[in-house]
């Protein structure tokens, strides 16, 4: 069976070079192993997703030299490749979890949870672990709370170790309960990233998930969902995030580092790829390269951060 990878951009902003690194790595992993790639637009958060960003992201990825076998414009055997059109599948999974007693209604508001401390390492994809306030409510208490509030639905994280072998970072060990019960459907009806991405990767037959290390602690949560839903989990690997010299993550907010602005500023895609490849260690020093030249050179990149310092920045912008 062919391996299947994916890239899953969120159209709530423009792609920045960190996203480009993740997309290029997922592409290289599949092209090196003769696998297939699907592109899935993760527009589940309707309040933040914009169709114009989705279009721009597809164009930016093409500009970089990426192609994909299945996607929103191309279609494919697992269509639709747009999360906002896959809600019936998420609802079905939610029902299954509910029937199996794996969910409970949560009436906590954002302000109830605001004072909880976030994980110290700064890589927490879910924010602070939920301490389980609503888990033990009696039926009577739920009835009273339900009278003036629509609840969110939380998934009960199992007790005990969740271990997995990260293809790039090596053995990983998490304590399930310490991650906290997480929301699978919000009070406003929106399905969570964790549920949507698990259902999608499973139903799209994805065998290899390669994504940024910011999502490392989402993996044990998703593994718990795979188990609860009786689905086969893919292999996971997490690639280092790009950070500046002070260790601050390059974020979407740094407008000069979006693909759109690099392109407008006349930076060639080969130059951006050469920069990323040098940071990853696929080539010895930055020099312009095409994506296909990197196929035989692609290899795992270890660690959780790569430093994008001033020297690299000035090389990138040198005409
Ligand atoms: N949509 C997510 C993002 O843009 C990626 C999800 C994933 O790769 O699992 O950060």
Structural notes for this entry:
Belongs to the class-I aminoacyl-tRNA synthetase family. GluQ subfamily. L-glutamate binds at residues 6-10, 42, 193, 211. Keywords: Aminoacyl-tRNA synthetase, ATP-binding, Ligase, Metal-binding, Nucleotide-binding, Protein biosynthesis, Zinc. A motif ('KMSKS' region) lies at residues 249-253. By secondary structure, the protein is α/β, with parallel strands linked by helices. It folds into two domains: 4-85 and 240-317, HUPs (Rossmann fold, 3-Layer(aba) Sandwich); 101-194, Glutamyl-tRNA Synthetase, Domain 3 (Glutamyl-tRNA Synthetase, domain 3, Alpha-Beta Complex), CATH 3.90.800.10. The chain has helices spanning 17-33, 51-64, 87-99, 110-113, 139-146, 176-179, 193-203, 219-229, 259-264, 269-280, 310-317, and strands at 4-7, 36-39, 103-106, 152-155, 161-166, 170-175, 182-185, 208-212, 235-239, 241-243, 305-307. It has a three-stranded antiparallel sheet with strand order 3-4-7. The chain has a two-stranded parallel ribbon with strand order 1-2. A two-stranded antiparallel sheet has the order 5-6. α3 (87-99) crosses α7 and α7 (193-203) packs across α8. Bound molecules: glutamic acid (GLU). Glutamic acid binds next to loops. The site of glutamic acid has 7 residues, from loops.
């Amino acid at each position: 069976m062919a391996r299947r990878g994916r890239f899953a951009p969120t159209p709530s902003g423009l792609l920045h070079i960190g996203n480009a690194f993740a997309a290029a790595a997922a592409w290289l992993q599949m092209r090196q192993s003769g696998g297939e790639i699907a592109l899935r637009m993760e527009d589940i958060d309707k309040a933040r997703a914009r169709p114009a960003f989705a279009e721009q992201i597809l164009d930016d990825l093409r500009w970089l030299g990426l192609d994909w076998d299945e996607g929103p414009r191309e279609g494919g055997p697992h269509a639709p490749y747009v999360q906002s059109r896959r809600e019936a599948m998420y609802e079905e999974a939610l029902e299954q979890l509910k029937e199996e007693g794996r969910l409970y209604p949560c009436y906590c508001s954002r302000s109830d949870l605001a004072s909880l401390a976030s994980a110290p390492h700064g890589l927490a994809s879910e924010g602070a672990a939920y301490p389980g306030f609503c888990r033990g409510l009696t039926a009577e208490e739920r009835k009273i709370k339900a009278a003036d509030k629509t609840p969110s639905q939380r998934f009960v994280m199992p007790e005990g170790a969740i271990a997995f072998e990260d293809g790039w970072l090596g053995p990983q060990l998490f304590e399930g309960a310490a991650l906290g019960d997480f929301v699978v459907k919000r009070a406003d009806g929106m399905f969570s990233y964790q549920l949507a991405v698990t259902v999608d990767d499973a139903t799209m037959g994805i065998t290899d998930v390669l994504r940024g290390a910011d999502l490392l602690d989402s993996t044990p949560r998703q593994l718990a969902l795979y188990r609860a839903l009786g689905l086969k989990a893919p292999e996971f690997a997490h690639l280092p995030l790009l950070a500046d010299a002070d260790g601050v993550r390059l974020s979407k907010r740094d407008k000069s580092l979006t693909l759109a602005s690099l392109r407008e500023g006349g930076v060639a895609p080969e130059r951006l790829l050469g920069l990323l490849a040098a940071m990853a260690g696929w080539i010895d020093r930055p020099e312009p390269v095409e994506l296909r030249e990197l196929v035989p050179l692609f290899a795992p990149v270890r660690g959780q951060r790569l430093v994008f310092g001033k020297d690299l920045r000035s090389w990138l912008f040198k005409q």
